[in-house]
Each structure stands twice: as C-alpha cells, then as structure tokens.
Design brief:
Layout lengths: L4 H12 L4 H16 L4 H10 L2 H8 L10 H11 L5 H30 L4 H4 L7
Helix pairs in contact: 1-2, 1-6, 2-4, 2-6, 3-4, 3-6, 5-6
C-alpha cells in the first residue's frame, strides 16, 4: 500500500523534529536518492511501491554508486548534498528518514533491504540486528 505524500512528510518532520515540511522533504529526497543507489531489483521496486510517487521516482532514479557505501560514508555523502549540514546533522537526517522508511517497509522487506546493504545500516534504520 502506497503511503501518501503528506503522511510521509509529516512522519519525517515529526521524527526529525524539523521546523518545516520543506526541511523534511529535503532530507527525504537526499536520503532516498542515496539509498536508491544501493538497492537493486525487486527490493528497490517493492520499496518504491510503498512510497509516495514523487519519492518513489527519486528512489528508482538514483545517482549511481560505484560501490556500496559503508554507513559512515553514507552519512558523509548525505552531509555533502545538504547545504550547511555536518556529519552530526546528516546522521540525524538519515536516521529520521530511514526510520520512517523502515516503518513503511515492514519486517520482511526490511530484512531483504538490509541484506543488500553493508553491515551497520540496521542502526541507521533504527532496527538494530542481533549479532
């Protein structure tokens, strides 16, 4: 079931404690563009089917990554794409967006998403895995 645009932005805004919808949208667009570069195949398509259409397109048409970024580099890449961001604020942005994505995805899809990502992304999604 596709989440509505306003509902997703409201969730990201609340989770990230952003002052405006625009801040939440900026974070969502950047983080999903970077995430889309790391996911492939059915997993990416299935996640896109659950996102509002505008953000689904962002996820499905990402910047191409040469290699999967470890979580720390993913955060640094996010900081580089958000004007005025630091690694600390980018960590907040990434976790705010990805924790909402995890809620939308559900457990089964999240397990498959995490299989495609380097170790450590579970924490960014707010879903620590048992070792």
């Amino acid at each position: 079931m596709r989440m509505q645009w306003d509902a997703l932005l409201a969730a990201v805004q609340e989770r990230g404690e952003y002052a405006s919808r625009e801040e939440a949208e900026r974070a969502a667009r950047v983080v999903l563009a970077l995430l889309g570069a790391h996911l492939v195949g059915e997993v990416r398509s299935e996640l896109a089917d659950r996102l509002p259409e505008t953000l689904a397109l962002v996820l499905l048409n990402p910047l191409q990554a040469r290699e999967p970024l470890p979580p720390e580099r993913f955060v640094r890449a996010t900081a580089a794409w958000i004007e005025g961001a630091t690694e600390k604020t980018a960590t907040w942005d990434v976790s705010s967006v990805l924790s909402v994505v995890a809620d939308i995805a559900g457990d089964d899809l999240m397990d498959r998403i995490l299989l495609q990502l380097p170790v450590g992304y579970d924490l960014l999604f707010g879903r620590p895995q048992a070792i």
